[in-house]
Amino acid sequence: MPCSPEDGDLVQGAPKVAVPDDVAEAVRTLIRWAGDDPDREGLLDTPKRVARAWREYARGYAEDPAHHLSRIFYEVGGYDEIVLLKDIPFQSHCEHHMAPIIGKASIAYLPADKVVGISKLARVLHAFSRRLQVQERLTAEVADCIWDNLNPKGVAVVIEASHACMTARGVGTPGVMMTTSRMMGCFREDERSRKEVLALMGY
Ligand SMILES: Nc1nc2c(ncn2[C@@H]2O[C@H](COP(=O)(O)OP(=O)(O)OP(=O)(O)O)[C@@H](O)[C@H]2O)c(=O)[nH]1
Ligand SMILES: [Zn+2]
């Protein structure tokens, strides 16, 4: 995947982050554990690559997700209906196996007075997904962050994802998706609002 400008020191051509010896050594140990020789030519640079890759996978730890919701618009022409960002692709890693979680999220809110730039919903998702996660917590953290910072009338988050720890190992069930949701405010209390937002999401 190409680096985006928000990757900071990870932008192609920028100086690479230094990898501490103990981190590289940990990867060498893992290579040995996997059954290979970390001193063979093809694997010599792998510990540093893996270490830097993990800085990318886990760059959400360096972000304050709420910061993305700090630029508020109060005037949006009296708009008072659902705002939905649908099928946002994301990647995360499960905290049990550190294996990829690959999926999509739909994030909706019903504004009271505060509205944010629509990209910010995806930024909040990425700030939480680029950490070690379980899908339930990821779903709740995204919803809670929007609820706490925008004080909307409702928040709805639905996430569908495939867990590599289930597809590439373990139970070995490719194609299985896990679905989680968090409904808050009107989407939790009012059945019509809940149905409306789920229909807009395509469920
Ligand atoms: N609820 C939940 N479970 C997850 C998530 N990601 C991974 N898991 C599960 O975490 C569980 C960890 O179970 P353990 O028995 O401790 O680990 P394990 O022996 O590797 O389990 P298996 O995956 O069944 O081989 C597994 O059932 C995984 O499928 C997630 O986001 N949410
Ligand atoms: Zn897992």
What this model shows, in words?
- By secondary structure, the chain is α+β, with helices and mostly antiparallel strands.
- The protein folds into two domains: 5-57, GTP Cyclohydrolase I, Chain A, domain 1, CATH 1.10.286; 68-201, GTP Cyclohydrolase I, domain 2, CATH 3.30.1130.
- It is built from seven helices and seven strands.
- It has a five-stranded mixed sheet, sandwiched between helices.
- β2 and β3 form a beta hairpin.
- Mean pLDDT is 94; it is low at 1-8.
- Guanosine-5'-triphosphate (GTP) binds next to α4 and α5.
- Residues 24-201 form the GTP cyclohydrolase I domain.
Unreliable parts: 1-8
Kindly report the spatial arrangement of strands forming the biggest sheet.
Answer: 5-2-3-6-7
Class by SSE composition: alpha+beta
Helices and strands, in N-to-C order? HHEEEEHEHEHEHH
CATH homologous superfamily label of the largest domain: GTP cyclohydrolase I, C-terminal domain/NADPH-dependent 7-cyano-7-deazaguanine reductase, N-terminal domain
| Number of distinct helices | 7
CATH architecture field of the largest domain: 2-Layer Sandwich
Report how far apart the termini are.
Answer: 29 Å
Shape: elongated
Evaluate the radius of gyration. Answer: 20 Å
Q: Could you report the average pLDDT, rounded to the nearest whole number? A: 94
Return the CATH class of the largest domain: Alpha Beta
Task: Say what the CATH topology of the largest domain is.
Answer: GTP Cyclohydrolase I, domain 2
Biggest β-sheet strands, sense, barrel: 5 strands, mixed
Count of structural domains? 2
Residue share in helix? 25-40%
EC number: 3.5.4.16
Pfam families: GTP_cyclohydroI (PF01227)
Pathway: Cofactor biosynthesis; 7,8-dihydroneopterin triphosphate biosynthesis; 7,8-dihydroneopterin triphosphate from GTP: step 1/1
Enzyme class: hydrolase
